[in-house]
Amino acid sequence: MRHKVYGRKLSQKTNQRKALFKNLINALVLNGQIKTTEAKAKAIRGLVEKLITKGKQQTFHARRLIGAFLQNKKAVNKIVDEISPLFKKRPGGFTRIVRLENRRGDNAPLVRLELVEKPPKKEEKPVGAVNKAESKNRETKKVKKSVGKNSRKKKDENKSNQKE
To answer: Which has fewest Cβ within 10 Å: 3, 8, 26, 67?
Structure first.
């Protein structure tokens, strides 16, 4: 009998279950929402609430405790710097579960687990993005270089044809 036994096993071994929870929480923190099964969403909901509550302290110690659990610096920084200030006055209930359809293969109920308040999105440049002036300069340099290479090849071909 499972009297007063807390938590869900989800038919997995302990290490696998902990890794699954960490990955789901990291994805939720970084993306703001995840699509998963109802049982998994209910299993990690309490953990997410505790991490956000701990992040409200805004101390270095809280950062370390969250980091020890998540092991992802980006997620830790996002919890402490962006997410927890949004919920400063809210005593709990930081996540919402929205029911979706049932999964096609095994008819498992799918849900979307999301944060009640979403942090403002920062506009990030893609890794290779540059402004227009720089891109024009690069294009002209490429064209000039290619012209130089082609002309050299033609000269070499002309010389080899003349020798024969």
So the answer is: 3
Where are the domains positioned within the chain?
14-115, 130-164
- Just give the CATH number of 14-115: 3.90.1030.10
> CA–CA separation, 49 vs 36, rounded Å?
17
CA atoms of 49 and 97, how far apart (whole Å):
13
14-31 vs 38-55: helix crossing angle, rounded to 10: 70
164 residues of the chain, pLDDT tens digit each: 989 988 889 999 999 999 999 999 999 999 999 999 999 999 999 999 999 999 999 999 999 999 999 999 999 999 999 999 999 999 999 999 999 999 999 999 999 999 999 888 777 666 666 666 666 666 555 555 555 556 666 666 666 666 65
Name the nearest CA neighbour of 120 among 73, 89, 78.
Answer: 78
Q: Is 102 helix (H, G, I), strand (E, B) or coil?
A: strand
Q: Helix, strand, or coil here: 77?
A: helix
Whole-structure pTM over 0.85, yes or no? no
